[in-house]
Amino acid sequence: MSLYLPVLLGTLRDGSRSERVARFVFDRLAQRPGVQTRLFDPEEWPFPNLVSREWEMDPQPPRVAEFVREMARADGFLVVAPEYNHGYPGALKNMLDALYDEWNRKPFALVGVGGVSGGLRMVEQLRLVVSGLGAVSVPAHVPVQSVAKEWGDAGPLEPDRWAARFDRLFDELEWYARALRAARQA
């Protein structure tokens, strides 16, 4: 049975360099045997500011219901987000906070984007949030530094180097997704 591993883009900024990374990650993940994926851009979903969580919405808008269904059927998640002032973007936090049960006992792989550290401080903070959702942050992560210099509109200028790094992250995410899916089913 294949794994469903959505990619969550964690920013709303126009022209965000994180989107380049997310598209590369999505395209690469979609090529893996036994994996289905979909790219979720927060701009396309009705979670701009957290006013109510999905279970508090009455009636629940159709796009919210679709998002809930997609996250509920997911076996794990891959988040690609920039670091904003040593943290993660508010759009990502709103998207995560709008749900709860759908994240529970599922793995998250984290990709930080930006600056000299490649979003490492954002990744560390996001690990706390993931834990608070009752989910598991896989130990590996990928920091993406110098996007402006090393990435073009079509992806990284050295795709093989980045492909190898992301493939290791995907391997780990898939392992955790299979293990946790089996545990949830038991």
Features:
186 residues; alpha/beta; Rossmann fold; 5-stranded parallel beta sheet; two-stranded parallel ribbon; 9 strands; 19% strand
Characterization of this structure:
The protein has six helices and nine strands. The relative contact order is 0.18. It is of the alpha/beta class. It has a single domain, classed as Rossmann fold (3-Layer(aba) Sandwich). The radius of gyration is 16 Å and the shape is globular. The model has no long low-confidence stretch (mean pLDDT 92). The protein has helices at 17-30, 62-73, 90-97, 120-132, 147-150, 159-185, and strands at residues 3-4, 7-9, 35-36, 39-40, 77-82, 107-113, 136-144, 151-152, 155-156. Strands 4-2-5-6-7 form a five-stranded parallel beta sheet, with helices on both faces. Strands 1-3 form a two-stranded parallel ribbon. Strands 8-9 form a two-stranded antiparallel ribbon.
How does the helix and strand content classify structurally? alpha/beta
State the CATH architecture. Answer: 3-Layer(aba) Sandwich
Stretches where pLDDT is under 50 for at least 5 consecutive residues are: none
Shape verdict: globular
CATH superfamily descriptor: Flavodoxin domain
CATH class category:
Alpha Beta
According to CATH, what is the topology? Rossmann fold
Question: Span from first to last CA?
Answer: 16 Å
Q: How many strand segments?
A: 9
